[in-house]
């Protein structure tokens, strides 16, 4: 959207500035200053979600805040003591994040950016890795003893079992009507594949040709999907990044919908 928001370390005492860089004008603006600050998501020059250590607390204990950029007003979303966790996802209208307490899950939350209204999703106590877009929040859920995907339509509070396929399913990433996730559906529990689901039609296609234990999804956008493959050899690990043209691969039609097998 023509800008970059990042955390800029100011001194050795872990004081950071949350900084916005406008690409067109090549100008920097300091949005706020805090201890051990990190950017968790930003959108459209209007809102930023960030984590920061409150005064007098250890740097690793970070609360989560919503910053309204035009007004400069920060709103506390959740404290570390209540389970604030950085593993969230942001859309044009909402931010969703998991609440994690020591040795236990504590549910999935979302906030409406325009109003600051926070909501905890009922039934999401064992949820993590949430992703949000439009009216949906989708998350990885362990209520059945293994990872599976559940979701809720925020407008109707309607909970949906998204991947009721008998496999392990996790790490969802949602953009528009396209949901990317990793699954053992084609591997018999021996590793992950990357899958793509159309949330309008529920059609699912396998994206990866080979199974691997180190796959993680990115967002599907503009007809492309980017995903990560974590590789380890001789105790040394590294990441490989892959990009798939979903139309050229025969996974999407010219309307951007998943083509059923």
Cα end-to-end separation: 35 Å
Secondary-structure element series: EEEEEEEEEEEEEEEEEEEEE
Discrete helix count:
0
What spatial form do the alpha-carbon principal axes imply? globular
Brief summary:
The protein is mostly beta strands and 261 residues long. It has no helices and 21 strands. The chain is 0% helix and 56% strand.
Overall description:
The chain is mainly β. The protein contains no helices and 21 strands. The protein has a six-stranded antiparallel sheet with strand order 1-2-3-4-5-6, with no helix packed on it. The chain has a four-stranded antiparallel sheet with strand order 7-8-9-10, with no helix packed on it. It is globular and about 55 Å long. It starts with a strand and ends in a 16-residue tail after the last strand. The relative contact order is 0.08.
Give the SSE layout:
Layout: E1 3-9, E2 15-22, E3 27-43, E4 47-53, E5 63-68, E6 73-78, E7 89-90, E8 94-101, E9 104-112, E10 118-120, E11 127-133, E12 136-141, E13 148-153, E14 158-161, E15 169-175, E16 178-183, E17 193-198, E18 204-206, E19 215-221, E20 224-233, E21 236-245
Antiparallel strand pairs: 1-2, 2-3, 3-4, 4-5, 5-6, 7-8, 8-9, 9-10, 11-12, 12-13, 13-14, 15-16, 16-17, 17-18, 19-20, 20-21
